[in-house]
């Protein structure tokens, strides 16, 4: 269950340490030929997301801060599980650790 946010904008959320705030891509509800897909066919979230914000990084064993590997605006590949959901209005966002992100998509 997503936590109900008490702020008006997702820009008010600043991830800490190695956390990454993402918004998953929504599956298309209509095909290119104009056929509407049922909600059961579009209920599974896509594994792709856009990075909204990142934390500064987490300290390693020596105490040096290791920066996160992605930046705001990057497209990333996510696991099918995990992440902490945050709901702002009708939009749903997720916080993942940097190490949980599977890949950065470069096009």
Structural overview:
With about 110 residues, the protein is mainly β. It is built from one helix and nine strands. The chain has one helix spanning about 40, and strands at about 5, 20-25, 50-55, 60, 65, 75, 85-90, 90-95, 105. The strands form two sheets. Strands 1-7-8-2-3-6-9 form a seven-stranded mixed beta sheet, with no helix packed on it. Strands 4-5 form a two-stranded antiparallel ribbon. The relative contact order is 0.29. The mean pLDDT is about 80.
Radius of gyration: 16 Å
Which stretches are poorly predicted, pLDDT < 50 over at least 5 residues? Answer: none
Measure the end-to-end span: 33 Å
- Estimated structural class: mainly beta
> DSSP helix count?
1
Structure summary, number of beta strands? 9
Overall pLDDT, averaged? 79
Q: What does the overall shape look like?
A: globular
Topology order in helix (H) and strand (E) letters: EEHEEEEEEE
Summarize the structure.
This protein has one helix and nine strands, in the order ββαβββββββ. It is mainly beta.
